[in-house]
Amino acid sequence: MTDDAPRRLRVLAAMSGGVDSAVAAARAAEAGHDVTGVHLALSENPKSFRTGARGCCTIEDSHDARRAADVIGIPFYVWDLAERFREDVVDDFIAEYEAGRTPNPCLRCNEKIKFAALLDKALALGFDAVCTGHYATVVVRPDGSRELHRATDMAKDQSYVLGVLDDRQLAHAMFPLGDTETTKAEIREEAARRGLFVAKKPDSHDICFIADGDTQGFLAKRLGTAPGDIVDEAGNRLGSHEGAYGFTIGQRKGLRIGHPAPDGKPRYVLDISPVDNTVTVGPAESLDVTGLTAIRPRWCGRPPTAGPATYTAQLRAHGGETEVTAELVDGTELRVTFTEPVRGVAPGQAIVLYDGTRVVGSATIATTERRARAQEAAQ
Predict the structure, then answer these.
(1) So which residues are the catalytic ones?
(2) CB atoms within 10 A of CB 310
């Protein structure tokens, strides 16, 4: 959070128990702000323990966050948002997979929990900002409006998962790690200098509420088995599955077809149809996406200008950028054309648009247009 005339703010620091959020809270306190640490109890089983770098929101993480707050010298609380998290993130995750889409729970958590439920509670209690350990930057323009930009360390940039934040949320967001030329190694060194023993704690990977990393097993327990067919593009049956929700667009491994394609090339998941419970597979070139339509757009600050414009787009948290032409239609639908075809694009994912380092906004992919299908339709 940048301002021409810095002032002492009441800051609520979301402390996950990891090194990034601990250093972010320490930097906010060192900058002279009145900081209070809070750990969000989101797990339905808070007594569980982490396994290496998997999972978060465990009792271990809560204790780590409390010890970090003690070292920093700030008050610390634990807020129970498990029910809200289950409804807005976990249940949404399950419903999206059941509908044949591929959701991003980290974006949903930022939108619904950290910068909605948490922020609303913080503002009600008189706090000015919520501070997190995300790697991104908020820039204040001369007119007072705010922009979200990529972090200076592109290797750790997390602006993609923050692309759902609107102008109001940006006005109360603080990302101390994104404002400086700092790599992750330097963050760990800084944590060690500050006496924060989480300096060597491994980063949390995968989906936080699926600690063992078995997404298919997690979904199977909640959705049950639903046998169906695996077919090729012509509709020929190649095999069977126990639940279409266990597949994602672009998936290659675990198809269990049992015999190779006629041309000997690998096959990939091309389509997931919950209506007839089929999974369609085919060659890699059939994954080429030339355009898409996205819904529920959210703008980080000022909305884009009317008419088509050129941007770069990011389609997954750790993916690269690709050039696109995008246009907002009727204020509710984003139509995107790729300069070069891209692969592995699935309904339910978020597309985040950038103008240079500035995050323009995001939208949820509803449909995709593929090169192979477009050619067939033209014949």
Answers:
(1) 109, 208
(2) 10
